[in-house]
Amino acid sequence: MSSPLLTVENLEVRYGSIQALKGISFNVHQGEIVSLIGANGAGKTTTLRAISGLVPCASGQISFGEHNLLTVPVHKRVGLGLAQSPEGRGVFPQMSVLENLELGAYSRKDKAGIKADLEMCFTLFPRMKERVSQMAGTLSGGEQQMLAICRALMCRPKMLLLDEPSLGLAPLIVAQIFEIVKKLNQEGMTILLVEQNARMALKISHRAYVLETGRIVMQDSAQNLLNNDEVRKSYLGV
């Protein structure tokens, strides 16, 4: 197998005296969907925030392609091909859908490419085209999640970091969003998915890691984890 696109080694993150991540290691290869699953407070979102540079790392290494991310400023990580759709969506409520999407492409200069990617987003999420002039703060929760994903796609990433895309959404909307995530991957997008809905995450992932209180306690193919009695009992409610 080729070298991983993303490699995290012995990563530790602290919030004051609290150690949120206790030396976790994992990798993601080009073309994969890899999920991090676990209960609230397990360290899933902290892991994504450390990769994006939004929280400092106490120790460890994060490599993205040829780059040591710990030496790359936060604003330059997007330019390397990392984009995050954050937990809670984080849209700019007083800006229109189009303005939010244009912000996603702020570091790009290729006008034709930006236009093509806007059309790609509108094809993936027709609702965004219908709402293009609407203020983002007036969208439904599901529409805001679609916008957050599209905004991340507008910087044309090599890897998409998705943080809790199903949070607070109706089951029908969740199913739609996961179907689109799967389609993005089938078209070549590498995805690192953090998700509390373990069943949905494992159904579309290639591999997954289970986090408990800042440690990886299990890793396997997504199919094996779906069939694992311990995972079924603890995370799938079976």
- Second CATH tier, the architecture of the largest domain: 3-Layer(aba) Sandwich
Name the shape in a single word. globular
| The level-1 CATH class of the largest domain | Alpha Beta
Total number of beta strands:
10
Low-confidence stretches: none
**Order of secondary-structure elements:** EEEHEEHEHHHHEHEHEEHH
Using only C-alpha atoms, the radius of gyration works out to 17 Å
The CA-CA distance between the termini, in Å, is 34 Å
> Can you count the helices?
10
Biggest sheet features: 6 strands, mixed
Summarize it.
This protein is of the alpha/beta class and 238 residues long.
Description of the molecule:
The chain is α/β, with parallel strands linked by helices. It folds into two domains: 1-81 and 157-238, Rossmann fold; 91-156, no CATH class. 38% of the residues lie in helices and 26% in strands. The chain has helices spanning 44-52, 74-80, 97-104, 111-124, 126-130, 141-153, 171-186, 198-204, 222-226, 229-235, and strands at 6-15, 18-28, 33-37, 59-64, 67-68, 82-85, 159-163, 190-194, 207-212, 215-221. The strands form two sheets. It has a six-stranded mixed beta sheet, sandwiched between helices. α3 runs parallel beside α6. It is globular.
Chain-wise SSE layout:
Layout: E1 6-15, E2 18-28, E3 33-37, H1 44-52, E4 59-64, E5 67-68, H2 74-80, E6 82-85, H3 97-104, H4 111-124, H5 126-130, H6 141-153, E7 159-163, H7 171-186, E8 190-194, H8 198-204, E9 207-212, E10 215-221, H9 222-226, H10 229-235
